[in-house]
From TrEMBL:
Record-listed E.C. numbers: 1.1.1.100
GO molecular function: 3-oxoacyl-[acyl-carrier-protein] reductase (NADPH) activity
Domain of life, per lineage: Bacteria
Native source species: Paenochrobactrum gallinarii
Any one Pfam family match given in the protein's UniProt record, by short name: adh_short_C2
Keyword Oxidoreductase applies: yes
Keyword rRNA-binding included in the entry's annotation: no
Protein known as: 3-oxoacyl-[acyl-carrier protein] reductase
NCBIfam families: PRK07231.1
């Protein structure tokens, strides 16, 4: 039996990486998918790889009006929203905290933090009306254990973990479960931003901090998100799931 059969899932940052992998995995398990990203071509390209029903919606999660439009588009198409994955993220380059520009700091705040606020404002009443739902936030292993040079990014992901727990506490009585995933770094387009110097030696040193001896993969994160979204995790809320190969131990 498909674990998400009949469910409708919105996934932000679905144009690549973790978000694209979640969309594929959720679709394989029967969900109808709303892929959201700033880059319309990226999410349209992802549609070809999905076997089930899906739509691509270009949207800017840092803007309240855009988030409202995303929710309305999803609801108009599918008539309900069961799963919200706040996966879109932004980081500054690895550098001293005093050298991060205010513009970059504002983007980190808007995309990593305020977007969750906007989506919750729009979605929580709808989920309550339909009898419940699931919210999954993508945090980071660095939200638990910051890495040097990533101060403001790490702080934003620590906020995501704390916000997840606060949301879960308040929304539990409405049958809305809220959890987050804390992945360690993956070999993606953002990896060079996380490293002070992107060299083979620096990558090897990064991997050495992970007990299981490798970086995360999009599939690792997608499988964790699938479980949290499914009824198998029906009594799990307020959890921050480490997908980090033991880094947080």
């Amino acid at each position: 039996m498909q674990r998400l059969a009949g469910k409708v899932a919105i996934i932000t940052g679905a144009g690549s990486g973790f978000g694209a992998a979640m969309a594929k995995r959720f679709s394989e398990e029967g969900a109808r998918i709303v892929l959201v990203d700033l880059n319309a071509k990226h999410i349209e390209d992802q549609l070809d790889g999905l076997g089930g029903e899906a739509i691509a919606v270009r949207g800017d999660v840092s803007r309240k009006d855009s988030v409202a439009d995303i929710m309305q588009t999803a609801y108009d198409r599918f008539g309900r929203i069961d799963i919200m994955v706040n996966n879109a993220g932004f980081t500054h380059r690895n550098q001293p905290l005093t050298e991060v520009s205010e513009d970059n700091f504002d983007l980190i705040s808007a995309v990593n933090m305020k977007a969750i606020y906007y989506s919750t404002l729009a979605l929580a009443p709808l989920m309550e009306q339909q009898g419940g739902g699931v919210i999954i936030n993508t945090a980071s292993a660095s939200g638990r254990h910051p890495r040097k040079g990533l101060a403001w990014y790490s702080a934003s992901k620590g906020w995501v973990i704390s916000a997840t727990k606060a949301m879960a506490l308040e929304l539990a009585e409405k049958n809305i479960r809220v959890n987050c995933i804390c992945p360690v770094e993956s070999d993606s387009g953002t990896l060079p931003l996380f490293l002070k110097n992107d060299t083979p030696q620096a990558r090897e040193q990064l991997v050495d901090t992970i007990p299981m001896g490798r970086l995360s993969t999009p599939a690792d994160v997608a499988n964790a998100a699938l479980w949290l979204a499914s009824d198998e995790a029906g009594f799990i809320t307020g959890a921050a799931i480490d997908v980090d190969g033991g880094y947080s131990i």
